[in-house]
Amino acid sequence: MTAYRYRADVLAQLWSHGVQPGASTPPELVHDFVNDLYRYELRRLRDRLVRGEIPKPGYYARVVALRVKYPLVSLKPHEWLAADAQGPTPKAGTIPSMVPTVQSKLPSSGVSIFATMTRLANEHGAINLSQGFPDFHCEPQLLARVARYMWAGHNQYAPMPGQPALREALALKYERVYGRRYDPVTEIAVTTGATEGLFSAITALVHPGDEVLLFQPAYDSYVPAIQLSGGVPRFVTLRGPDYRIDWDEVRRTISPRTTVILLNTPHNPTGMIWTPDDIRELEAVLQLTGAFVIADEVYEHIVFDGARHESLARYPAIAERAVVISSFGKTYHTTGWKVGYCLGPAAIVAEILNIRQWITFSVNGAMQLAYADIVNHDPERTSVTAFYQERRDLFLKLIAGARFTPLPCRGTYFQLLDYSAISDEGDMDFALRLIREHGVAAIPITPFLHDGARAGRVLRFCFAKRDDTLTRAAERLVTV
Ligand code: PMP
Ligand code: GLN
Ligand 2 in contact with 329 (CB < 6 A)? Predict the structure, then answer.
């Protein structure tokens, strides 16, 4: 067996990259491996340059630094070996070891801003108006029903597409509330929260190189899902204070490669809602493109001031190429249960099911049955609309004396507040200072933005909170 004796300086270099060749590891093999590491880092740098995260001069400086970090790639493999390369034959059983390195498929996504701000709020004992979840209980009838179904034995895998009773209930609800009849067997899928529905729908429809048109600020789960499918996100920017859609920009952004238009109404984080005019514009745009539509409608019942939720399910010409996605988490104060659903044409839903069966394949059965009862009992769920409008109005009243300026909030349980009368800081810095110095946690908008778009001086506050939480937070906000 050939034994290789590597130069000491080469070995030290290899060790610094986490590579430990044994005496029987051919240098050609290790060379390829190190070359891959080098090219991977170079590719990441290039991606950051393209995304505008580093300027050109900074990019070149980093490329040079990378050459310095990897001097080995410019040597030929045989030059790595000591002059008397043929050392002693290694003992039988010596295993050549090379430590593998993880190559992230999502190198630029860190921990979500929601988890980050909630952690900081807990660390600083701040009042948490950041991550969107209620700090009050869900309804006792819902708990009682889940318990009853669990005691009745619904504790094993539920059918993969969802409990038939829940899909029937959703079919009836959509017919009654939005006027479209979806086939409960072929056109409705229950998912592990809207997040899994979105992920499966994007994975089902987006192929490498396909473009997805979406609106920013964009909810954080969209872009990673697009990227994992090899898709290219193309953004249309919504601008404050109204965050209305610039339809000319939409028309300019559509291309022959646009495969999906991804929208969210009511919109997190801005509170903007789609109007009948927006729907008409979308209908016109769809005549120019073969794109599908994915609509994230998780806040479907949280729409204020008498406005109507413009579900795509209401519009046959759009609905026949659209996936509508929603979640029980928002509507029933149960974000932690993670039950959501998708509705759409049978061909798309079949592909969504095909994909999601390899992710979680089955959703908590007892909870599905409980939701089925409660949806059948009250499909319109108008009480939650009134409930959150009161929360919004209470929050606005409580902060009326503050130097924050509220932006229009037409839906969702988030209120944007403009702080430009208080500070020139960027939103990330200001959000951190608000936690540390004033004990209130909110969400900055920058993480919802891409391609260098700027957030402006606004933060998002969640008002899905008890009176006393909102009151204590407001007492602090009026002193900022
Ligand atoms: N889309 C939007 C716009 C959201 O705000 C959220 C959650 N807050 C989701 C999707 C995810 O919903 P779920 O918790 O049901 O996965
Ligand atoms: N959607 C929730 C929000 O916007 C958070 C969900 C999450 O933590 N990923 O705050």
Answer: no
